[in-house]
Amino acid sequence: MRNWRHWKVAVTGINAHAENPGPGLAVARCLVEHREFRGSVLGLAYDALDAGLYDHDNCQSSYLIPYPSAGDEALLERIKVIHSLEGIDAVIPCLDSELQNFISLRSELADLGIQMLIPSRDQFNLRAKNHLVDLCSKIGVAVPRSKMLTDPGFFDRAAREGFEYPLVVKGVFYDAAIVYNAFEAKAAFSRLVGKWGYPCLVQEVVNGDELNLAGVGDGRGNLTGFVMMRKRAVTDKGKAWAGVTVVDEALHATASKLVRALAWRGPLEVEVIKGTDGKIYLIEINPRFPSWIYLSHAVDRNLPVAVLRMLAGEKDLQLTQHEPGTFFIRHARELIVNLKDFESVLVNGYCGGDAVDRSA
Amino acid sequence: MTDSLLAGALSQCSGDRLRQLAVSDTGFVFDPQTGQSFTVNATGRLVLDCLKRSDGLEEAAQCLAEDCDVPLELALSSVEAFLMQLGRYL
Amino acid sequence: MPENSSPKRPKLAWEPPFIQPHRVGEINKFGRHRPREARVASVFGVDVELLKKNYGSPLFVTSEERLRANVRRIKKAFAVRWGNTCHGWSYKTNYISAVCNILHQEGSLAEVVSAFEYEKARALGVPGEMIIFNGPNKGRAILERAVAEGAQIHLDHLDELNLVEAVAAAQGRKARVALRLNFDTGYSEPWSRFGFNLESGQARQAAKLAAASPHLQLCGLHSHLGTFILEPRAYGEQVKIMCKFMREIESSEDVQIDVIDIGGGLPSMNALQSIYLPPEQVVPSINEYAEVICGTLIEETRYRSHTNRGLPKLVFESGRAVVDDAQVLITSVVGTKRLPDGRAAAVLDAGTNLLFTAYWYNHKVETTGEARGALADTVLFGPLCMNIDVVRQSVQLPPLRAGDSLVVSPVGAYNNSQWMQFIEYRPNVVLVHEDGDVSVIRAAEDLSVMMAQDRLPEHLATPFAPVRGAGCNRFDAEAEKQAKTLRPFRICRG
Ligand SMILES: Cc1ncc(COP(=O)(O)O)c(C=O)c1O
């Protein structure tokens, strides 16, 4: 096996919607800015407007891949083509909806020499929105009251079922809305279902501080590396806009408990609310790095690099002490795209700094 | 197709207007006036080329009929439909 | 097209010229990419073109081997975990006679929900005791027959309970009945319109009444959660709730429950339009369901070993999971077009008249001919004069031509029963036998079938009635003679 420092690492989720960026570009930045990493990052994108396709500083070259809904066979076929052109050493999947496809392909990709630090299907399912309550009640982690829904009629009888507005309505994979009455709730429900299918999750709102932990599970129950962050400002959609590293023992304990119970393998993000009562409520577990993961590089606990080291079999991840007090502020900026690159993405599904013909 | 509709489409797609379009061999089309991009198929590219040379509708159809070896009437009606489409987009 | 009028090859392959604008959010030519074009030359081992030649198009093709294998596999998953298990074939899912008899030969009971289905099961030779009679509308006449023949009647409401009791009393018999229950498992929306509601106490009341009646023998509990249930835990909760209710009524009333019927609802490998990921990713295996269902049943009936009550029989009424992938539809392209928005489109000879399930599934569509051209986003329309007659809104297919065959799958569940007769004849349905022979199991309709039920009153016997009265006869003798030979009635009598 080649030294991880020279790997070509494929990263997905390189969209950078100004309001709600995918984590892929942040993962790519963590890798390319790490002092020991000499390899390169290959972007895997789902749309010609995914910024990572044209961000050659972070993604040396990039390719379009099939939508997750096209299934694992389509994905495998496309990755094989890309692999034959590029030689991929590892993939870091960064989106929830695609992960099941990558899980199905784990052994096929391993046979091609492509490694991934990802959970098993069971682990993935157990932390899914519709199993979270069961998991948490088993291991004694508090969750806000929640219910899976397929019928919007619920919103009219919410009170009878013991739910009080405001409520949070969440899509199966992404997206959420805070709603204050049945009318808003139904509108949010049909929007989410229209986009992501059934079911939806409805959850009571808990007041308190939003804390997040990004970490990596080693698959044997240990939370190997982690960074904790408190959101200091959020967008209209509740996404982090500014945040700061913190050290919160209760959050760390909760996350460790979850990782142990799941024997989680791979990156994850644990989102909690620390209630005014000081109690930790689990909001969700995301099976991938968060989009604020660049903060881990800033505090010298580069978690994407930790993934590569773990895949390479290193035991000592050389993570420094976890220091509080490093801020981030997310800002948008325009990436300049020339027409030739845009055309190449449309016509060949490829964009790169070099001139190799990759029309497949 | 009514003549007035076609006339409208034709005036939209004047040779000058069409000559602005950047058409590449791959079928990628960019309209610098509106900033919109398109994909055009091989026969569409041929017709665009003809029209840009300010060939009339009939000449373009003739060209298409010859290159594809199809009856002129078929080519003519498809070129008309194509022009209507262009008229909507440009 | 005069392809042969000129010997030289055209410079360009003919395709109408078109231009398509790029739209935000859908600019990915690999987005709906399919792993190689899905192409099949044969279905269930038989050549598609041969089938089309012999039996016409469209054509439903059913596999006996697959059907038997499916029901055996599902039954085994339950039987290894809970010995006393039985499958009830839900007729409504597909009631072609041959399909029903294959399943009866495999030991399945008949689960029927109407007078027609009941009569059909009896006509096929299924004895009354092997029939589960479900459904919200059972008339007196058919109940009289069912009671006399010893069918197990699943009660849907109190009026029905009273009616069955009256019928049984009149016959001096004790009717075997089960209560259909509805309740909230917390996992799927309750189908509360069927049966007796548990939470409100209706079910308790019905159980009390049934237990007290000298003419009813309450022997079972039934519930059906819904269909395409993707959450095995929903069944676990269902079984738990039903067992708890069983224990309650057995201790308060003089009854003995022998049957727990969990209904159907297991999913098939079909792609629901409302689910984002493909079925391979979201449909749990049958063993996961069986594990939860039987595991809960074992847990919740453990107490019975300390009583003198035996363990109940587990009945499941899986429909779509048994038959869906045992049937495909062969259809032909009638014509192609390019839609104004640039998408390719084809008109097929089969639409939602035959594929009712196209309203909620994205069926798999495979081509059969040789490879031809790049895949493109294609809309497939059916033959109906209805705008909603769409077989697939968007599917990646190579350029199609009139006459091309397409294979649509899986289609075995609910199409041969919910298909509608609107402007078209329904086509042949064939069965590929286990030895590879092919035979028709439902013949294509023709005009005589369509007109067999029509009746013409005397004065409407001809389309152009001669107006009586001297001097105003608008028909000449020839026209009148023609009209007579056209009498529609003659055709169906013939
Ligand atoms: C009472 C009952 N049993 C069984 C079925 C079969 O359901 P499925 O095809 O989902 O297994 C149905 C379908 O509606 C039903 O109503």
List the keywords.
heterotrimer, A: 360 residues, alpha+beta, Rossmann fold, Dna Ligase, domain 1, D-amino Acid Aminotransferase, Chain A, domain 1, 3 domains, six-stranded antiparallel beta sheet, five-stranded mixed beta sheet, 15 strands, 29% helix, globular, C: 494 residues, alpha/beta, Lyase, Ornithine Decarboxylase, Chain A, domain 1, TIM Barrel, nine-stranded mixed beta sheet, eight-stranded parallel barrel, disordered N terminus, binds pyridoxal-5'-phosphate
Any overview of this molecule?
Chain A has helices at 24-32, 72-86, 96-104, 106-111, 121-126, 132-139, 182-196, 249-262, 294-298, 303-311, 339-348, and strands at residues 8-11, 40-45, 61-64, 90-92, 146-149, 167-170, 176-179, 200-204, 208-218, 223-234, 240-245, 265-275, 280-286, 327-329, 350-352. Chain A is α+β, with helices and mostly antiparallel strands and 360 residues long. Chain A has three domains: 4-116 and 334-352, Rossmann fold; 145-204, Dna Ligase, domain 1, CATH 3.30.1490; 206-329, 2-Layer Sandwich (D-amino Acid Aminotransferase, Chain A, domain 1), CATH 3.30.470. In chain A, the strands form three sheets. Chain A has a six-stranded antiparallel β-sheet. In chain A, strands 4-1-2-3-15 form a five-stranded mixed β-sheet. In chain A, helix 1 (24-32) links the parallel strand 1 and strand 2. The longest helix of chain A is centred in the N-terminal third of the chain and has 15 residues, at 72-86. With 90 residues, chain B is mainly alpha-helical. Chain C has 15 helices and 21 strands. In chain C, strands 4, 14, 15, 16, 17, 18, 19, 20 and 21 form a nine-stranded mixed β-sheet that branches. The chains are: A alpha+beta (360), B mainly alpha (90), C alpha/beta (494). Chains in contact: A-B, A-C, B-C. The A-C interface holds A 45-49, 64-74, 76-78, 97, 100-101, 104, 130, 147-148, 150-151, 153, 172-173, 193, 196-198, 345-347, 349 and C 22, 24-36, 186-189, 231, 272, 274-278, 280-281. Bound molecules: pyridoxal-5'-phosphate. The site of pyridoxal-5'-phosphate has 16 residues of chain C, from helix 11.
